[in-house]
């Protein structure tokens, strides 16, 4: 049984002394307009509390930093705005471990609401579950009022008498004046997300820009446009920033446009043209983004200067830029309250002690240090079994369902949510011919995970270097997936490969991000040596061929014919049911597999309880 630990989570500002926190190495580039951005926080408001001191600030620290920088902006007579690009749930006990009675993220929304955002929008994760979307509407959108901007998401609500009405999740756009009197027109688009719950509607951005309300909103020229949306800033297949910028450019060829994207979890910067800059501020409270624009009030648009920085999210960063005594009373009380919430949510409950660290990106998935190997070699074969089944099973995981590393040491309830935040259940398709099962994993990895977005957009499908993305030779509706995790891993691996071959003397630096974006000068606020990262597959599986079942099932035929031995049960998370069905139907033509062939494999386990069970059995 689980035991209560004598340690407390947060407000540990520097949790692991063996991992020193480096300082930034230069001042921030201030402009006439400065914008701080957050994105893809996924519930990490307590910061990173194990081993990663570089990301160990918490929401209270961020609050104080923003408050001090706002004071500094006033002292300088410039503007400082704050924006967030969405994805606040899925990935941390603080959101996913919400006690019964409220939907996930309910309490964390109150912490979010403390932050003086000028524009805040939704991500796709707020829209996977209808009750989460409704809570977002009732709590966060209502709190922020006109500052909660969602330009292309509608929600259908049922009133008490069962009558339906469809509303925009947030304000479609926001026009406002900054403290220094500049005019801003802001939009909050989400990529053309298709995997949302029923009762939600997302309009493709390329359709949104044709709407009369959009054309009316852009007619008048502001000092600058502020686009804050949940969409990769690269020209990936699910991104349509170029379409939106182009629509604005048709009316205002030279007006400054600032873009704050997200979704792909990377630090990134691109320029759509010389009068715009697009920034993405990473993920998981690791990064605070900074953009500044100089020359914004000049009629001569050829002198505009854009700068960007990626700040490591820790107290050293905040002290360096905002002063040693940057703490505010309110920031400290947020920190304190987070500690209490962690206790209330029982997040310190220890399920076991991990004997070593297991990583998601640092090692190949075949390495003993890989979390994917831990899951497929040990966790799944031990726990996801059915002694009543006469056939062996092959369990397939979408690696996107696993979100983070396991660090050596206590494995707590919070870690469980960090690793596997989704409530996906284990389903199976029984009795699949062995020859078909053998081809399943390679096939799935060839076509990739099903798209979250429709790819009918007008955006060209190009990679970050404007090279065509590798095309798959087979015609398949799922081909050429661009999953977030895949892109994130590809980018980390590229950055690691590039920097480790060129840098010298880097061994003195602490590990961290070494960002290779598309904007001039270095963007990272603190110098690091890169954390190793290698390519990982989109799908992994337990061993093939699977060992024979240690079955209690009475074989349906006492002679146990060859034919029967030749069958395998295919087990998978419900989230990838469409991928499995479509792969099976592509790999054989004898039978058409449908939803009717799918049943629950184990009722007692879901993605988010898997590691608890394993830690209690093997690590306690
Ligand atoms: O129920 C779910 C929902 C999502 N996933 C995985 O997450 C990614 C999408 O997350 P992003 O943060 O937007 O990348 C999706 O591709 C799945 O791999 C899941 O496993 N279960």
TrEMBL record:
Residues 357-581 form the Putative 5'-nucleotidase C-terminal domain. It comes from the Eukaryota. Residues 35-266 form the Calcineurin-like phosphoesterase domain. GO terms for biological process: nucleotide catabolic process. Residues 456-475, 538-562 are annotated as: Disordered. One of its GO terms (cellular component) is extracellular region. The keyword Transcription regulation does not apply. Pfam families: Metallophos, NadN_nucleosid_C. InterPro entries: 5'-Nucleotdase_C_sf, 5_nucleotidase/apyrase, Calcineurin-like_PHP, Metallo-depent_PP-like, Nucleosidase_C, Pesterase_C1039. GO terms for molecular function: hydrolase activity. Keywords: Signal. PANTHER family: 5'-NUCLEOTIDASE-RELATED, ADL392WP. This is Metallo-dependent phosphatase-like protein. It comes from Leucosporidium creatinivorum. The lineage of its organism: Eukaryota, Fungi, Dikarya, Basidiomycota, Pucciniomycotina.
């Amino acid at each position: 049984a689980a035991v209560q630990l004598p340690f407390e989570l947060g407000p540990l500002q520097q949790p692991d002394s063996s991992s020193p926190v480096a300082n930034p190495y230069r001042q921030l580039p201030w402009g006439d307009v400065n914008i701080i951005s957050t994105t893809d926080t996924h519930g990490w408001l307590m910061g990173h509390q194990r081993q990663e001191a570089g990301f160990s600030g918490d929401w209270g620290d961020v609050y104080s930093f923003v408050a001090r920088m706002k004071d500094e902006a006033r002292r300088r007579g410039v503007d400082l705005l704050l924006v967030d690009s969405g994805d606040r749930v899925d990935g941390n006990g603080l959101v996913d471990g919400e006690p019964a009675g409220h939907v996930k993220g309910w309490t964390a929304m109150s912490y979010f609401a403390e932050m003086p955002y000028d524009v805040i929008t939704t991500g796709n994760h707020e829209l996977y579950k209808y009750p989460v979307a409704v809570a977002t509407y009732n709590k966060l959108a209502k709190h922020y009022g006109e500052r909660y901007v969602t330009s292309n998401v509608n929600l259908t609500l049922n009133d008490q008498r069962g009558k339906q009405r469809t509303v925009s999740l947030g304000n479609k756009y926001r026009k406002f004046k900054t403290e220094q009197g500049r005019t801003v027109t802001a939009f909050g688009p989400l990529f053309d997300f298709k995997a949302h719950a029923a009762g939600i509607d997302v309009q493709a951005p390329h359709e949104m820009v044709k709407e009369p309300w959009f054309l009316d909103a852009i007619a008048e020229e502001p000092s600058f446009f502020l686009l804050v949306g949940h969409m990769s800033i690269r020209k990936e297949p699910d991104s349509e920033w170029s379409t939106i910028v182009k629509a604005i450019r048709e009316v205002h060829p030279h007006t400054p446009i600032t873009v704050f994207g997200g979704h792909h979890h990377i630090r990134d910067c691109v320029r759509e043209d010389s009068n715009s800059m697009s920034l993405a501020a990473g993920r998981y409270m690791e990064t605070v983004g900074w953009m500044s624009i100089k020359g914004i009030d000049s009629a001569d648009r050829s002198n505009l200067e854009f700068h960007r920085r990626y700040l490591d999210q820790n107290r050293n960063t905040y002290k360096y830029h905002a002063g040693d005594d940057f703490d505010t009373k309110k920031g400290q009380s947020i920190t304190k309250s987070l500690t209490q919430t962690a206790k209330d949510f029982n997040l310190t409950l220890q399920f076991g002690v991990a004997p070593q660290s297991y990583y998601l990106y640092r090692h190949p998935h075949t390495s003993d240090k890989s979390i994917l190997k831990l899951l497929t070699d040990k966790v799944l074969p031990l726990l996801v079994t059915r002694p009543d089944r006469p056939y062996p099973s092959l369990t397939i995981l979408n690696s996107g369902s696993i979100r983070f590393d396991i660090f050596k040491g206590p494995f707590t309830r919070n870690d469980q949510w960090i690793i596997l935040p989704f409530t996906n259940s284990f389903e199976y398709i029984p009795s699949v011919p062995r020859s078909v099962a053998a081809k399943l994993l390679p096939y799935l990895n060839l076509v990739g995970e099903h798209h979250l977005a429709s790819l009918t957009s007008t955006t060209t499908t190009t990679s970050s270097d404007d090279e065509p993305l590798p095309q798959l030779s087979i015609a398949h509706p799922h081909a050429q997936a661009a999953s977030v995790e895949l892109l994130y891993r590809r980018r980390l691996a590229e950055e690691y490969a590039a920097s480790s071959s060129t840098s010298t003397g880097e061994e003195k630096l602490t590990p961290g991000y070494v960002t290779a974006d598309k904007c001039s000068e270095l963007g990272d606020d603190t110098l690091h040596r890169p954390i190793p990262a290698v390519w990982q597959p989109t799908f992994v599986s337990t061993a093939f061929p699977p060992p024979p079942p240690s079955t209690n099932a009475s074989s349906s035929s006492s002679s146990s014919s060859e034919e029967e031995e030749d069958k395998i049960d295919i087990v998978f998370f419900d989230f990838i049911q469409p991928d499995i069905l479509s792969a099976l139907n592509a790999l054989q033509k004898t039978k058409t597999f449908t939803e009717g062939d799918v049943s629950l494999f184990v009722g007692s386990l879901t993605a988010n309880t898997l590691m608890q069970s394993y830690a209690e059995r093997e690590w306690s």
